[in-house]
């Protein structure tokens, strides 16, 4: 990609995040929401790269030239979901109207007590899935999170819900360590939630069609799912407006298989299926897209465009990666 999203400063910084936390906790959600307008104005005026990325995305998803008002609405939606984290992570669900679809299918998967992978994205709010803990407190949910890239959010999570924070699987580890931690969690019957729409710099990725152009998606989640042979469920926590959310679960596969002989084609097929569902929900709730960087790559700025044709594998060989996971899984299981 033309821009390294990991190099962008964390939105708002520690001071802004803790300020809004204090206002939300002591003044309530209604008062805190009034502060979203100056926050939106700040990002609109000061954060040029994010503003341009928003306009590019909105132009694609809306099918028309996105104006400044649309960009402002996009940023305001993002700020609203950040504010709601304070309440959702703290278990304060009163006042939220969350419509859930696909819950029976998710219950069916988890009731097998074999563990599962919950694939989410930077579309909407991942934290709204905490309502599951209210509906089914017997579920154990583990979240994969890059602690180093989100220090303010990590500290906020530690303060609001130490139990969730203690169960976080650090995505900043090396690949095999992450895979082993995920396997251990699923062996314990946990639902492991991770975001699979953003490729880390240098991470293996394949290009899939998304909103009319090819974009890179990470391959590691699909290789891990193939190695662990656990069900995969897609999740989209879409912010609608005010206090309303739509939490959608979709069963993706009971067990993913990636043949070694057609590895790239099989993984690409899985990623394309996922990208198609991501596009469906992005078009349904266009202002919920929170990847504020050049997701596709910009040829005009001198970056290398993603070309159509055979899938391109980046950084490492998938066979080696999958073999490493399989070896570690075998060691974990014993002789």
Beta fraction of the residues?
15-25%
Order of helices and strands: HHHHHEHEHEHHEHEEEHEEHH
Query: Strand order, biggest sheet?
Result: 1-9-8-2-5-3-4
Q: Rg from C-alpha positions? A: 20 Å
- Taking pLDDT < 50 over at least 5 consecutive residues as the criterion, the unreliable ranges are 299-335
Keywords: Acyltransferase, Cell inner membrane, Cell membrane, Membrane, Transferase
Organism: Pseudoxanthomonas sacheonensis
Main location: membrane
Subcellular location: Cell inner membrane
Molecular structure report:
By secondary structure, this protein is of the alpha/beta class. It has a domain of 224 residues. Helices cover 47% and strands 16% of the residues. The protein has 13 helices and nine strands. A seven-stranded mixed β-sheet has the order 1-9-8-2-5-3-4. The chain has a two-stranded antiparallel ribbon with strand order 6-7. Helix 10 crosses helix 13. The longest helix is centred in the N-terminal third of the chain and has 22 residues. 39% of the residues are buried.
């Amino acid at each position: 990609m033309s821009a390294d999203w990991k190099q962008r400063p964390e939105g708002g910084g520690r001071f802004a995040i803790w300020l809004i936390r204090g206002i939300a906790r002591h003044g309530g959600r209604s008062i805190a929401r009034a502060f979203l307008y100056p926050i939106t104005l700040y990002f609109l005026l000061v954060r040029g790269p994010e503003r341009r990325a928003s306009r590019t995305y909105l132009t694609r998803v809306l099918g028309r030239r996105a104006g400044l008002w649309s960009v402002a609405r996009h940023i305001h939606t993002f700020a609203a979901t950040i504010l709601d984290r304070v309440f959702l992570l703290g278990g304060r669900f009163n006042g939220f109207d969350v419509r859930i679809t696909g819950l029976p299918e998710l219950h069916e998967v988890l009731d097998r007590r074999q563990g599962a992978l919950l694939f989410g994205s930077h579309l909407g709010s991942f934290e709204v899935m905490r309502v599951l803990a209210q509906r089914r407190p017997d579920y154990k949910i583990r979240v994969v999170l890059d602690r180093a890239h989100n220090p303010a959010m990590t500290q906020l999570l530690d303060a609001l819900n130490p139990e969730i924070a203690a169960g976080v699987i650090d995505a900043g580890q090396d690949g095999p360590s992450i895979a082993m931690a995920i396997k251990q969690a699923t062996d314990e019957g946990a639902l492991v939630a991770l975001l699979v729409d953003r490729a880390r710099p240098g991470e293996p990725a394949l290009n899939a069609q998304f909103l009319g152009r090819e974009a890179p998606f990470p391959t590691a989640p699909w290789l891990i799912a193939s190695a662990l042979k656990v069900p995969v469920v897609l999740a989209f926590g879409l912010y609608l407006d005010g206090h309303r959310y739509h939490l959608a679960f979709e069963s993706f596969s009971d067990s993913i298989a990636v043949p070694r002989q057609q590895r790239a084609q099989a993984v690409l097929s899985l990623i394309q299926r996922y990208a198609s569902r991501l596009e469906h929900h992005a078009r349904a709730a266009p202002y919920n897209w929170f990847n504020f960087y050049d997701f596709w790559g910009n040829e005009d700025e001198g970056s290398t465009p993603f070309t159509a044709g055979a899938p391109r594998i980046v950084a490492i060989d998938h066979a080696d990666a999958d073999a490493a996971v399989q070896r570690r899984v075998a060691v974990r299981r014993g002789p």
